[in-house]
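Aggregate trends can hide what the representation actually does to any particular protein. In the encoding step, the backbone of a single protein was reduced to a row of integers, each denoting a local shape. The record that follows shows the chain in one-letter code together with its fold in token form.

***
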Amino acid sequence: MTSDDKEKFILNDEKSFEQLYVSHARKLYRFCCYYIKNQEDAKEIIQEIFQSLWERRDQVEINVPIEQYLKKAVKLRIFKYFRDKSVREKHVMSFLNDQTTGENTTENSIMYYQLSDQIEILVDSLPDKTGEIFRLSRHQGLSHKEIAGMLLISEKAVEYHITKTIAFLRRALSE
């Protein structure tokens, strides 16, 4: 019997496969634990390797000593473990960043609209001319000179009304 036949015999015979597991699993587990530092994940990796080997026993061809084959399988699974872990961590970080940004954006939007509503209510309570000058300045972005020309008043008067409105808003909003 050649070594290839022996390997196939081990994989096809349930008792021999169990013996293979008993003789190699502990050593492979320690090897895996050394690299990934997580006992539960190491157990799972070893179980997956042996389960996969058993499920594919009819298709798999092992052309190297079984110990070498199993160690290579563990190394490949360790690489996959770290690759998957890295991807998961990136997704989690991305999710957390999206959540944080989303919450802050939503919260900030709500606060912005509430503040805008309060400012509008306060500006509506101002005398008509003062409210109009403030809206032309802040909502339409007109300069003091443009507002003065439009309303036929001096630039100093425009500046006075805007300063008065800002002081009023600060007092009212701080309360």
Notes: The helical segments are 3-12, 14-36, 39-55, 66-124, 128-138, 144-151, 155-174.
